[in-house]
């Protein structure tokens, strides 16, 4: 059959020859099996979990005698590996990620096969240049600071690396490479995919393109900044849509989730609902679930380290080295956001304000190696060294050093020993995703027996900007930017009674030990299964290009209305009724000029010229405006103001649908609306003959929604005895008179009921064209 291109339905009907019966075929909107087929393949055991992270949970060290020249071992300290303890015991687990840096040049298919068989790890091979631009360029020097609230105000702020489109393309290329690798092994109807952290923000979109019914979870281990920060990203919409292509999105704290929800509302116009303890965002027929739960620690792994004999030996050595001192501990990465310099300033202020602590209070700061290179990292190191040198010079004496910096590599046993020996842990990060240091400190203090069997106690001085802060209610929370507050908190910790320290410690240990990494992984896995339970009962249709791709999920009874269905029935019938929604259908809602174009007028006239057609424009707009716009359409019917006014043609008079003619209630409603308009920037009142409408679509989304709720309650109160209906719609609050014959309803149902009064027994073909939500 020849291919034809037409601008509208009428042209298509005129051009096409009579169509032969269409062969039976599967609808194109479906992806995979029909909903009537078995809900899901039934594997012999639990579905496989595919854990995707930037790095594989492996260590690699050169070893000529080992296969491929490297000795690979499991890195049990990574969250990606530790979460296995919370997954079903019988469920297979596959890790996907890049190789450890030391072994990056050994990439080969043979190595991949070896790692899969030996460690259940599938490597993603990225060229060195691409990986550098992806990780060090876009992720660490652009996204990482911005997620931690640092704006690239000038090129020098981030070492000359503000947003760079080329680096962003490298980021997308790396994420696409992960998707390519997953495509090789993924069973989309069986596997659950769990993506870790911001390095792979774009991966859900690439997976959803290839597998519309893939079961995808995403957990963000970094903060999610305020929408005012996030909106500065030039590709902000793409990144938000990528997250929304997951089924479950997890955050450490409610603050981070709230910022994400706010960004979705302000940038994409999406609202969320909370139902039975779950937060969900409706996105093209799919419900994206938002989960809030901080990561815990691996209790078993940490206990094994603390109970090791070599740890106990080091604990006693540390205790002897600081005998008679008040030992405080800090453990941080060399990072711009860890607040090491602020911590040292707080220590200095402590010694200034408390002379009796000079010679006694000691702060040991262990600095982990930096995860990236750059001028900002060097500046953090130089600042910390300068402050510690000044404090030690000012308050130090022979045999007493107030601030002890340990910059060398520290083994896990030595680090656990310092945790066990310190009576106070100080975390002063100015912004951090979670920071599990206080959790580790609490467990080490509890589990170590090297210092005797006395009741355990501990104190934590904790920045209020750290993700674990809401979980540790017994910590002394501080604003790290206030040096005086940090010093006061340190002083309070050192002066706290033993009984108070024991109570706080017991409270923390109970939480940490019951909310470990296994609990977190088990909870996320269960919620991911719940979020994906309807995948096989719905049909999925992919739309959009590039990073704007999304999947429309449709009910099992949905059938796509195609030209093949419309045209034959159109030709066979004699009495047709066509109802066309105006705003958002005939004319785009984003259009500034809402008047119909000459092309729209021409198409409507051609439809109306057929005596078998009765065509109506349906709108909530006033009759005068619609009459003016559609004056060239002699035979067009119009249903204005949600059907309050109906006109069958240009020469016909306007009719009403039997409403009460008393509009005195407007004198009460309008002043109330005016009050809220004055208080809500961007809102306005629309005056109709039959109604008053308060619009807040141009106001701040959160404030406008809040004001709309208040206005709804206010109007219902003052109009309780009036013959009106007050209702809230999408970005509106509307007051309508009560109807006698036709109940007020949605945009289409009210005028449809009016029109069908006259045509119900006459028509044998009906076409409704409107927006999905209408």
TrEMBL record:
Coiled coil: none annotated. Residues 25-37 have a biased composition (Low complexity). CDD domains: GT20_TPS (cd03788). InterPro entries: Glyco_trans_20 (IPR001830), HAD-like_sf (IPR036412), HAD_sf (IPR023214), Trehalose_PPase (IPR003337). This is Uncharacterized protein. Keywords: Glycosyltransferase, Transferase. It holds the Pfam family Glyco_transf_20. GO terms for cellular component: cytosol. GO terms for biological process: trehalose biosynthetic process.
């Amino acid at each position: 059959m020849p291919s034809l291109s037409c601008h509208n339905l009428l042209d298509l009907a005129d051009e096409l020859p009579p169509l032969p019966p269409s062969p039976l075929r599967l609808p194109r909107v479906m992806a995979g099996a029909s909903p009537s087929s078995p809900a899901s393949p039934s594997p012999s055991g639990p579905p496989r979990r595919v854990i995707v992270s930037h790095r594989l949970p492996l260590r690699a060290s050169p070893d000529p005698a080992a296969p491929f020249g490297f000795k690979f071992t499991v890195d049990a300290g990574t969250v990606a590996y530790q979460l296995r303890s919370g997954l079903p015991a019988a469920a297979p687990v596959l890790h996907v990620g890049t190789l450890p840096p030391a072994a990056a040049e050994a990439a080969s298919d043979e190595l991949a096969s070896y790692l899969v068989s030996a460690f259940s790890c599938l490597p993603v091979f990225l060229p060195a240049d691409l990986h550098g631009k992806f990780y060090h360029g876009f992720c660490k020097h652009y996204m990482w600071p911005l997620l931690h609230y640092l704006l690239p105000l000038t090129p020098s702020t981030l070492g000359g690396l503000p947003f760079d489109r080329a680096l962003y393309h490298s980021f997308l290329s790396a994420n696409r490479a992960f998707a390519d690798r997953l495509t090789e092994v993924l069973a989309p109807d069986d596997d659950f995919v769990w993506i870790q952290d911001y390095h792979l923000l774009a991966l859900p979109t690439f997976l959803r393109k290839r597998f519309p019914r893939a079961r995808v979870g995403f957990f963000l281990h970094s903060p999610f900044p305020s929408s005012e920060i996030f909106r500065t990203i030039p590709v902000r919409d793409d990144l938000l849509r990528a997250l929304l292509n997951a089924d479950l999105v997890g955050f450490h704290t409610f603050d981070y989730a709230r910022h994400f929800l706010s960004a979705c509302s302000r940038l994409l116009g999406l609202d969320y609902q909370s139902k039975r303890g779950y937060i969900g965002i409706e996105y093209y027929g799919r419900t994206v679930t938002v989960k809030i739960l901080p990561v815990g620690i691996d209790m078993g792994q940490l206990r094994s380290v603390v109970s090791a004999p070599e740890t106990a030996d080091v604990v006693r050595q540390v205790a002897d080295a600081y005998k008679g001192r008040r030992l405080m501990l800090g453990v941080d990465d060399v990072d711009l956001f860890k607040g090491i310099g602020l911590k040292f300033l707080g220590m200095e202020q402590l010694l200034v304000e408390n002379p009796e602590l000079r010679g006694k209070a000691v702060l040991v700061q262990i600095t982990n190696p930096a995860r990236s290179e750059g001028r900002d990292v060097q500046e953090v190191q130089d600042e910390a060294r300068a402050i510690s040198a000044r404090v030690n010079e000012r308050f130090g004496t022979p045999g007493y050093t107030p601030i002890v910096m340990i910059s060398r590599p520290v083994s896990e046993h030595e680090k656990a020993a310092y945790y066990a020996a310190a009576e106070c842990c100080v975390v002063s990060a100015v912004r951090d995703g979670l920071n599990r240091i206080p959790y580790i400190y609490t467990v080490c203090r509890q589990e170590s027996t090297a210092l005797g069997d006395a009741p355990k106690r501990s104190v934590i001085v904790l920045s209020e900007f750290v993700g674990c802060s809401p979980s540790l209610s017994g910590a002394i929370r501080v604003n790290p930017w206030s040096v005086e507050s940090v010093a006061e908190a340190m002083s309070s910790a050192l002066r706290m009674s033993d009984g108070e320290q024991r109570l706080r410690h017991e409270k923390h240990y109970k939480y940490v030990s019951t909310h470990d990494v296994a609990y977190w992984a088990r909870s996320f896995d269960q919620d991911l299964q719940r979020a994906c339970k309807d995948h096989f009962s719905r049909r999925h249709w992919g739309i959009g290009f590039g990073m704007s791709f999304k999947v429309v999920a449709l009910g099992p009874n949905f059938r796509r209305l195609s030209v093949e269905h419309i045209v034959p029935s159109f030709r066979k019938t004699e009495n047709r009724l066509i109802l066309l929604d105006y705003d958002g259908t005939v004319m785009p809602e984003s259009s500034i000029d809402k008047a119909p174009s000459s092309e729209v007028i021409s198409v409507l006239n051609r439809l109306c010229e057929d005596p078998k057609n009765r065509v109506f424009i349906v709108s909530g707009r006033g009759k005068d405006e619609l009459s003016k716009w559609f004056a060239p359409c002699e035979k067009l019917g119009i249903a204005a103001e949600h059907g309050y006014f109906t006109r069958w043609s240009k020469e016909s008079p306007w009719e009403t649908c039997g409403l009460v003619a008393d509009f005195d209630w407007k004198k009460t409603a309008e002043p109330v609306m005016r009050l809220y308009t004055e208080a809500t920037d961007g809102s306005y009142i629309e005056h109709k003959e039959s109604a008053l409408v308060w619009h807040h679509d141009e106001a701040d989304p959160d404030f406008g929604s809040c004001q709309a709720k208040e206005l709804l309650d206010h109007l219902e109160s003052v109009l309780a005895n009036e013959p009106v209906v007050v209702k809230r719609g999408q970005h509106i609050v509307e007051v309508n008179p009560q109807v006698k014959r036709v109940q007020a309803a949605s945009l289409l149902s009210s005028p449809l009921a009016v029109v069908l009064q006259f045509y119900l027994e006459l028509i044998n073909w009906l076409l409704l064209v409107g927006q999905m939500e209408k």
